[in-house]
Amino acid sequence: MSRVLITGSAGRLGRSVVSTLAAAGHEVIGVDSAPGTPAEAAATLPADLTDTGEAFEVIARFRPESVIHLAAIATPFSRPESVIYRVNTQLAFNVCEASVTLGVRNVVVASSPTVMGYGAPGGWAPAYLPIDEDHPVRPWNAYNLSKVAAEQTMKAFAEAGTTKLAAVRPCFVIPPEEWAGAPTQSGHTVNERLDRPDLGGVSLFNYVDARDASEMLGVLIEALPELPNGEVFFVGAADALARKPLAELLPQVIPGTEPFAAGLTGTSPAFSTAKAERLLGWQAKRSWRTELQDQELKESL
What is the pLDDT averaged over residues 198-220? Predict the structure, then answer.
């Protein structure tokens, strides 16, 4: 196995990535300005990667084969818009530049499904459903604009060198503790999102278990050498975070989606992961149905 450096290793996705890749035999290096990187990491380092010198120093110190860049201000509107855009774009640029300059073989940059532009104050509707990687992006706030910029930064560096790069768009990440009732990133519990379609509807009921997303990243860094440079992948569950079919729910929360949603029968999600399945052989294993059922069983014992 190889040495993998993970930025944002103390985050809701980063923690699972550290544990999953370490369990798979990789030597994992965690980099985060905040505490909380799992003990499975072979080494951890607090660093401000918005500082170009620190970004280069971190890569030069550890010389990883692969870098998975997750560090970001991860919640829209949680800071001033100018701060979110500046921090997230500087992080992506510095990590890519340092990695490519210092000869890292593989780099994966985290983007977001929010680049689609859902939730825009002036209204939004998809061009088609399910949404795949070819769907037009329509950023409208600093967070999703910064993620579009991160994807374009990744693609620019993919053109410039021999490092293999890709971007991933993880859906609404749910780590194990949130199946157990801890608040999600939005402040609501998973059950509340299921019980109130207005909460999850604005993001088209997308989600992914953090462990599934982590396993996808492990598969991706192994496959990158054989992939075209600069690919982008959605990473999501194989179903929707909804108790009813999206054909019924989506028109209720996003007017104008009726003709597109009609094809989303049964438990079908609004975001397609067919590309990841086709190119990587990856598909999410976990569903809210099994995870909440497992949690209820544990609580009854």
Answer: 97
**Whole-model pTM over 0.90:** yes
Instruction: Say if residue 85's pLDDT is above 70.
Output: yes
Q: Which residues sit opposite 51 in a β-bridge?
A: none
223: its two tokens: 């496959």
Q: Tell me the pLDDT tens digit for each residue of 159-168.
A: 987 899 999 9
What tokens were used for 81?
């818009």
Helix (H) or strand (E) holding 226: none
Query: Is 104 in contact with 59 (CB distance < 8 Å)?
Result: yes
pLDDT at residue 301, as a whole number: 46
> What is the DSSP annotation of 120-155?
-TT----SSSSB-TTSPP---SHHHHHHHHHHHHHH
4 three-state secondary structure? strand
For residue 277, CA distances in Å to 24, 171, 225, 274, 280 come to 20, 16, 17, 5, 5
How far is the C-alpha of 109 from the C-alpha of 89, rounded, in Å? 11
pLDDT in tens, 27-48: 999 999 999 999 999 999 999 9
CB 168 within 8 A of CB 216: yes
pLDDT value at position 300? 58
Residues 6+ positions from 80 with CB-CB distance below 8 Å: none
Strand ranges for 49-206 from DSSP E:
66-69, 106-110, 164-170, 173-174
With H, G, I as helix, E, B as strand and everything else as coil, classify residue 266. Answer: coil
Burial of 152 (C-beta count, 10 Å sphere; 0-12/13-18/19+): middle
